[in-house]
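Re: How this chain folds, sequence and tokenised backbone to follow
How to read it: Take the token row as a discrete description of the fold.
Start of record: The labelled sequence and token lines come straight after this line.
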Amino acid sequence: PGGDAFGYRAAWFRSFLFKSAGNTQSFVAIDALFQSCSSIAAGEPPELIQDVLYTSSGSCLAKGGGGVRPVCVTGILRKLVCGTLLAKHKPEIVRQLEAVYQYGASRDGNLKVIHTVAALLEADPTLAVLAQDISNAFNSISRHCVIAGLRRVCPALIPFVLDIYTRTNIV
């Protein structure tokens, strides 16, 4: 009886998030989520959540010429941890990448590329522009090189990246 349009009371949902202890309330679920995310970020996910963390949804996209491109999407827990880690470290990562003219992570990256190329061509008209799309480029990058790059740019991400790279995802 009572509750919202679906027959639920807010107190029922709140009971999952809060634990009353006398006159105080603690954020039990929020604290547990924070602890889990911290463990994941450190590359030491709790065994209880590993099946959820390393499960991906798979799809196939048709490629031009009749091929198929497999696409996997990770779960919300891994996205939450990734987003939180990257938000903390993104300014330094972007600064380091822009120093070597890599604008993929930058705000308005395409505009920066266009303006940089235009300025370079104006300064030296003998230069040429080459666009190349390398097949399966992401999978051809050495993971050792990725870790070496992280060691220079953002060592705090290494435990998380190593854990993700060394696991087999369940699709």
